[in-house]
Write a structure and sequence with these properties.
This protein has about 300 residues and is of the alpha/beta class. It has a single domain, classed as Rossmann fold (3-Layer(aba) Sandwich). About 40% of the residues lie in helices and about 20% in strands. It has nine helices and eight strands. It has an eight-stranded mixed beta sheet with strand order 1-2-4-3-5-6-7-8, with helices on both faces. Helix 4 packs across helix 5. The two termini are about 35 Å apart.
């Protein structure tokens, strides 16, 4: 673990841990604090990349941001879902992430500001994700998108949305997801893996926060192992989109990401799995943390060139 990460963990653990809030005022305050932290992370451990065209618009009532660095037709598209436990963050917190994905992959990126809990509980975020994918497919020509090259990607809760979308659209008569990039995804509602216990405190994402996020988005306990929100419990894993599953060494969610990648492999899907050493949950937003953190972007670039 390098000095940058040690310093970051010291600061977060002592001054800015993930907030567990129990009422509307506390949640609003925690969201504001989390966005300020995200901005600080961008200033210290990332770099803003210029994009030729950025456009904000709405799909129904869902705000989205389109990043476009080329005017050519029939581009591939990454539909990106930010992390935050279904309760925190937005398209601004992940703006540097989506800029970099756009430039490095020579594609359009559409970042999705899906509805957050507790105001909107399961399945609100998932329904928003599916609406956006359906809109992108239906309007692909006008957006300069190749409708056979729709990629879903996301970190943490966004990784969950991406994984669930691949199951949701697997048997769709028209929409076919071309690839999925799952960045330290939240996959299993049981929350009982060894890594959750091993890294339960001190590594940015903690066990208490995970359970609070779950309670906030799925207040009905019966929903928590529903395959629509815990995709590892789907009965059929055949014919899913090629997947790149990314985990971090010191992440409570590491084991379930690995288990999901193994289940995809066992069912004959194209799968790339990589654990990024000496890193924590959230590293994708702060790639200047280490060479290993930045390598994830190059690995995504290489993966997508091969499968899309």
């Amino acid at each position: 673990m390098n000095w940058k990460l040690k310093s970051l963990l010291w600061f977060v653990n002592n001054f800015q841990p993930i907030k567990v809030a129990e009422d509307a005022a506390a949640i609003a305050k925690a969201r504001k604090s989390s966005l300020l932290s995200a901005e600080l992370g961008k200033i210290l451990l990332d770099k803003k990349i210029s994009i030729k065209e950025i456009r904000n618009f709405k799909i129904d009532d869902i705000p989205v941001r389109l990043y476009k660095n080329s005017n050519k037709a029939n581009q591939k598209v990454i539909i990106y879902f930010h992390g935050g436990g279904f309760a925190y963050y937005n398209i601004n917190s992940h703006d540097y992430v989506t800029r970099r994905l756009c430039v490095m992959n020579d594609c359009i990126v559409i970042s999705v500001d899906y509805k957050l809990a507790p105001e909107f509980t399961f399945p609100a975020a998932h329904e928003d994700a599916y609406k956006v994918i359906e809109y992108v497919y239906a309007n692909a020509h006008d957006l300069d998108i190749d409708d056979t090259k729709i990629i879903v990607a996301g970190d943490s809760a966004g990784g969950n949305l991406s994984a669930c979308a691949c199951h949701h659209f697997k048997n769709h008569k028209s929409i076919k997801i071309a690839a999925q990039v799952l960045i330290y995804p939240w996959i299993d509602g049981k929350l009982k893996s060894d890594s959750i216990e091993k890294y339960k405190t001190g590594f940015l994402l903690n066990k208490d926060a995970l359970f609070w996020f779950q309670k906030t988005y799925t207040p009905n306990k019966k929903d928590r192992l529903n395959p629509e929100v815990s995709p590892i419990y789907n009965n059929n894993f055949k014919r899913l989109a090629p997947a790149f599953v990314i985990t971090a060494e010191f992440d409570p969610l590491k084991d379930e990401g690995f288990a999901y990648a193994e289940k995809l492999k066992e069912n004959g899907n194209i799968v790339l799995y990589k654990e990024y050493k000496e890193l924590v949950h959230g590293f994708f937003n702060i790639p200047k943390l280490s060479d290993e953190a930045m390598q994830a972007y190059y690995d995504i670039q290489s993966f997508l060139k091969k499968v899309v």
